[in-house]
Design a protein that fits this description.
Radius of gyration: 17 Å
Shape: globular
Number of helices: 5
Mean pLDDT: 87
Number of strands: 0
Largest sheet: none
Helix content: 55-70%
Order of helices and strands: HHHHH
Strand content: under 5%
Length: 168
């Protein structure tokens, strides 16, 4: 089996998507636009969604790499999520800011859009080629619990930081 097969490509694209989106946290060096005019509840919901997409895709990359059942369906879901987020922002549907989009942000979002399309196509290809029953159904529940205990406080911090930074 080749080292870089479609399964590994999907895992790499999931991690790439995670890194691209993570680089866009409000208050960081790339996302410098102000969203102070958007209701705090809306920003909180949006930042929660973005954080769940980013962390969920990082976890899904491991599931894909381990060839666990439903991992390709999850990777297709995250591809659609990334595509939607970037497409809405690039077409100025949401979130809309009075500040112009920095060139670095535009570049990362265009790359993210291309990665999401590739990720979706590879995920669909794997879904069509593999029978779900041929994938490993087991999930290590202890590892899942430990991962949750680590990621919940990290995710909460990211959501609070991103919402505060976007608002003020």
């Amino acid at each position: 089996m080749p080292i870089i097969n479609d399964t590994n490509r999907i895992a790499i694209l999931l991690y790439t998507s995670f890194l691209l989106l993570s680089s866009l946290i409000p208050g960081g060096p790339i996302e410098t636009r102000s969203f102070s005019h958007i209701d705090s509840e809306v920003l909180l919901a949006f930042n929660t969604f973005l954080t769940l997409v980013a962390l969920g895709s990082a976890i899904t990359a491991v599931l894909v790499w381990k060839r666990l059942q439903y991992s390709y369906i999850l990777s297709a879901f995250f591809a659609i999520s990334y595509f939607t987020v970037y497409a809405l922002d690039l077409t100025t549907v949401f979130p809309v800011s009075p500040d112009s989009m920095p060139t670095s942000l535009l570049t990362i979002e265009v790359i993210g859009l291309a990665v999401s399309i590739t990720l979706f196509l590879l995920s669909i290809k794997e879904i069509m080629q593999k029978k779900e029953s041929s994938l490993k159904p087991e999930i290590n529940r202890k590892a899942l619990a430990v991962t949750g205990l680590i990621l919940i406080p990290i995710g909460t911090f990211i959501i609070i930081f991103a919402t505060f930074s976007a608002k003020f």
